[in-house]
Specification:
heterotrimer; A mainly beta (173); B alpha/beta (120); C alpha+beta (686); A: 173 residues; mainly beta; six-stranded mixed β-sheet; five-stranded mixed β-sheet; 13% helix; disordered C terminus; B: 120 residues; alpha/beta; five-stranded parallel β-sheet; 5 helices; 45% helix; globular
Chain lengths: 173, 120, 686
């Protein structure tokens, strides 16, 4: 059982740390390991980056560090949302890298027990599958446990293929 | 705790001597050759002088001789840093009035032990 | 108390390197002296020069011994023995020996580099020099093996000892103290002391500086004779000493305590790079911080006693704070600055080796070696600079015969100079060689398809061609310069530092390269420009001028590219709003401003909405938390805390402009970006 073993490996990784920060995106609950969360900030305007995928909202000044902010709605192919007072940036720390994750609203910090874990069913060609570590059943809600490393590692921040004209090399005159 | 002067033209040795002796609570001042060492010795009274033999401007043996000529340094212990192969230098140092010698290479523990012996 | 002596490694390596640099220049000095003397005749060298060399080797040997770098210890010992002979006058430094010593310097550098990185040494690299050094030693080399563990362990039989110890009267004058000896003996075992006062004079005649006392001691416990002798080693000549065994006890041999421990373990442990800072620089910083504290006190007081006239005092205090902070910033930057002499120091040796190899005679004139540059700039300019001097020796300088035939002095001259001008350092490399051969360059460029066959180029434009990738006029690939590293790499390195390079040449008279480098990489003078709702920063060094253009001044090429006339040429127009996908609308040539920029010898106009003024900005990498972005070299933080992006002018211009459009540029510059990412002309051409 491939999926079950994936959950197991996630649990094995996190069996000493099952505290999760939960947040909402378009009516779905998500959780990320609290150990990866550095801080939560209000939405502030960021500086957009050219030649970058649309889900990179731009760069944020985090006390002198220049940090990318990822719009999770756009990352997951959902519709963009107008930012309001509940929109927040979760600043995560992976290795030595910092990144901001833009979410609709943060809900809670909860403890996810082993018996609350559920395996993720297999889907063919699910593009966002790699960001998901597993599921958790909390009371009557189903929560998606995200893999923060995968979300913010540079390989996964690769730019979309550039549109012609922007970088096209023109010949000699 | 004692006030010690280390005289050596190599920063590595000065740092090592200084750091080592500082770590056991001594105050250590540095001089980079005999001339500087002599000037420093005149400005401040040291309980122990540890000097290299080979130095520019004024070598260690001349420094020992010059220090012994000063009334304040008549009986102050002065140790020379010598290498295994410098037997003749050791004798020269003794003749000039050096108290003893420390054979290079040495490690910090050995240095601390020698200094403890000399200072009591 | 365990002290990790590895913390002193960095100092040792730095110091050894500096020592070897001065040893090398001392050796070159000796060689210089030899060349003025008759061939094969050794001159008596200046003893102080020899002493300098000796001390360098001696210090390296000492340090290496302390830290357990065996290869370095053994090799420097061999070298020291030779130098001892020279100092003692048994041997003269002639040409072969000077050459050997220079090669020995190289060996030591290699051995030290291995010790530093913790990598193993390939004995082959020092084999030859070692063999030659050993062959020179007529006097036997004393064995060097010093075992730290062994010096602590004492051999011999243990027992109970009776010791008669009668110091000489003058013992105190060597700073020794019999009480110290007794104290030390008491740490070895159980000590019974009997004082012999027989030599003590009547009280009135007693001289406190004379030692009158003697002792008879009984020492029991696990003590060896050697351990006792060791205690008396410093005063062996200053006393009468008898050591007698009272009763022999056979004692199990004490295991030599091996305390070598983990000294050789993980030497390759990752270490941060360090920089040596002069105390003067540190003192200045301390002073400024002191002033900052005073300013803070003034501000605090003003706020605490806020009254009607406080506004003015507050303003004065804030002005002072600003001044302090600016000074602090400047001086903190200065900590990273090193004299360019660190690079120049390597040149005399290089010139010597290569001119000997090529049979050329060259005088090297170096000036401005005290000019300071950022450590990173120094590190990255080093190889390009060496390469250029190598190039000059190989291609520029003629053989003495050729020079004589051309009516020039046989000894050629290479002049290297560094000087600071404003926020830049100018490095000049000039030779009086044959100059660049314009016809040959043009011919080669046409062959390589770099320019069209019938192109008319000015002399300067032709000279600039040597910076194109893959360009070399060398008829054969020589051992020296033809290693596939061309001036294009040199130029890319310089561009990547935000500098630029120019060449001027005159056939038969020589070549003159001028390199312009920023003082520091951390701070940049920038011009803020408005593009849509965003502020971007343009490096000031890349800007030629800014101008307003009327729509009719812009021509459209069939491919849709827009160009405009600037001075005598046409330059492409880049509408930044389009490039950066901003909102269209105000993208109007009537209201916008064209900033003419140059990079990598190419020019373009950037259309922006507005100019926001000039400011000094601190460069922040985008790559620390994200990745490289096309068209952007880095970011900075503006006064209001928002992030502004610094434009990669070289990348922008390279993407649209062909290199030969503006070949006669003299004021080009590129923003700081990796050399590998530079838009090389080749990419634009093929």
């Amino acid at each position: 059982m491939q999926t079950a073993s994936a959950v197991d490996s996630y649990l094995a990784q996190t069996n000493t740390d099952t505290l999760c920060l939960t947040f909402r995106l378009s009516d779905q609950d998500y959780g990320i390991a609290i150990s990866k969360v550095q801080e939560i900030r209000e939405w502030t305007k960021v500086t957009p980056l050219p030649s970058s995928p649309s889900y990179i909202r731009g760069m944020l000044n985090l006390r002198g560090a220049i940090v990318p902010v990822i719009d999770l709605r756009l990352r997951f192919g959902l519709d963009a949302l107008e930012h309001d007072s509940s929109t927040v940036i979760i600043v995560v720390n992976v290795g030595s890298r910092l990144a901001g994750i833009l979410v609709d609203t943060v809900s809670d910090v909860i403890n996810v027990d082993y018996d609350q874990r559920r395996a993720l069913p297999e889907f063919e060609g699910h593009a966002n599958r790699r960001f998901i570590d597993g599921l958790a059943q909390i009371d009557d809600r189903l929560m998606v446990l995200l893999n923060v490393e995968k979300l913010v590692t540079p390989e996964d921040l690769a730019p979309v293929p550039q549109t012609a004209g922007e970088t096209e090399q023109r010949g000699a005159v | 705790m004692a006030t010690i002067m280390t005289v050596d033209d190599t920063a590595t040795m000065r740092q090592m001597v200084s750091f080592t002796l500082h770590s056991v609570g001594h105050e250590v001042l540095q001089a980079s050759d005999g001339k500087e060492g002599l000037a420093l010795a005149k400005s401040k009274k040291f309980d122990l002088v540890i000097a290299d033999v080979n130095m520019p401007n004024m070598d260690g043996i001349t420094l020992v001789r010059s220090l012994r000529a000063l009334p304040e340094y008549k009986f102050i212990p002065i140790l020379l840093l010598t290498t295994e192969s410098q037997d003749s230098k050791r004798q020269e140092g003794k003749d000039a009035g050096a108290t003893g010698w420390i054979v290079k290479p040495f490690n910090p523990e050995q240095l601390i032990n020698v200094v403890r012996k000399v200072l009591g | 108390m365990a002290i990790d002596i590895r913390q002193f490694h960095q100092t040792f390596f730095d110091e050894s390197h500096e020592g070897l640099v001065s040893m090398e220049s001392a050796l070159l000095q000796i060689e210089q002296g030899l060349s003025t003397a008759l061939p094969n005749q050794a001159t008596t060298s200046d003893p102080e020069v020899l002493n300098t060399i000796f001390r360098v080797v001696h210090s390296i040997k000492g340090g290496a011994g302390t830290f357990g770098f065996g290869w370095v210890t053994d090799f420097s010992h061999l070298l020291e023995t030779l130098l001892d002979d020279v100092r003692a006058g048994h041997r003269q430094v002639d040409r072969p020996i000077a050459g050997l010593l220079l090669r020995a310097v190289d060996c030591l550098q290699i051995l030290l580099a291995s010790a530093r990185s913790g990598s193993s040494v390939d004995p082959a690299v020092i084999e030859e020099v070692t063999a030659e050094l050993e062959a020179l030693h007529l006097t036997p080399v004393p064995a060097m093996g010093i075992d730290l563990a062994a010096t602590g362990a004492v051999a011999g039989k243990a027992g109970t000892w009776r010791i008669r110890f009668i110091p000489k009267a003058n013992l105190f004058f060597s700073g020794n103290d019999p009480l110290r000896v007794l104290r030390e003996l008491s740490t070895l075992g159980k000590l019974h002391v009997e004082t012999d006062m027989g030599r003590l004079p009547p009280w009135a005649e007693l001289d406190p500086e004379i030692c009158y006392l003697g002792w008879t001691l009984e020492l029991s416990g696990n003590v060896t004779r050697d351990a006792i002798t060791e205690v008396f080693s410093w005063i062996a000549d200053d006393c009468e000493l008898e050591i007698q065994s009272i009763q022999d006890q056979s004692v199990a041999p004490k295991a030599a305590s091996a305390t070598a421990g983990d000294s050789d373990a993980d030497q390759a442990k990752a270490r941060g790079t360090s920089i040596r800072v002069s105390t003067h620089k540190m003192d200045t910083l301390v002073d400024i911080v002191g002033e900052l504290v005073i300013t803070q006190t003034i501000l605090n007081q003003t706020v605490a006693q806020f009254g009607p006239d406080s506004g003015q005092r507050l303003n004065a205090g804030l002005a002072q704070l600003e001044r302090n902070l600016r000074q602090l910033q400047e001086n903190v930057m200065r900590i990273r600055m090193l004299p360019i002499g660190f690079v120049f120091n390597r040149l005399p040796r290089l010139v010597r080796d290569i001119s000997q190899q090529l049979g050329k005679q060259v005088e090297l004139k170096i000036s401005g070696e005290g000019t300071e540059l950022d450590k990173t700039v120094i590190e990255r300019i080093s190889d390009p600079l060496l390469h250029m001097v190598r190039n000059s020796l190989d291609h520029g300088i003629e053989t003495p015969q050729e020079r004589r035939a051309a009516g020039k002095p046989e000894i050629a001259c290479i002049r290297i100079d560094a000087s600071q001008r404003g926020g830049h350092v100018i490095v000049e490399i000039e030779d009086d060689g044959r100059g660049l051969d314009q016809d040959k360059i043009l011919k080669r460029a046409v062959e390589r398809g770099l320019v069209a066959a019938n192109t008319k180029l000015s002399a300067e434009q032709i000279a600039e061609l040597v910076f194109l990738p893959g360009f070399t006029t060398a008829d054969s690939v020589s051992d020296l310069s033809g290693r596939g590293v061309g001036l294009d790499v040199v130029r890319n390195n310089i561009y990547s530092l935000g500098g630029n390079i120019d060449v001027r040449t005159q056939a038969g008279h020589g070549t003159h390269f001028t390199i312009r480098l920023p003082l520091t990489l951390a701070i940049l003078d920038g011009l803020g420009v408005q593009v849509g709702s965003q502020t971007y920063i343009l490096p000031l060094t890349s800007i030629t001028e800014s101008m307003a253009l009327a729509p009719e001044q812009i021509r459209r090429l069939p491919g849709g590219e827009e160009i405009f006339q600037f001075r005598q040429e046409y330059a492409p127009l880049i509408r930044l709003r389009r490039v950066f996908g901003g909102t269209p609308g105000a993208d109007d040539i009537n209201t916008g401003i064209v900033v003419v920029v140059e990079a990598n010898g190419r020019r373009a106009g950037l259309l922006v909405d507005d100019l926001l003024g000039q400011q000094q900005i601190v460069i922040k990498s985008l790559e620390s938390h994200y990745r490289r972005v096309d068209g952007i070299s880095a970011a900075t933080i503006l006064g209001d805390g928002t992030v502004a992006l610094i434009l990669d002018v070289g990348g922008l211009v390279g993407a649209v402009s062909a290199p030969l459009l503006n070949l006669n540029s003299t004021q080009s510059a590129a923003v700081n970006r990796p050399a590998s990412q530079s838009s090389s002309p080749v990419r634009a051409l093929h």
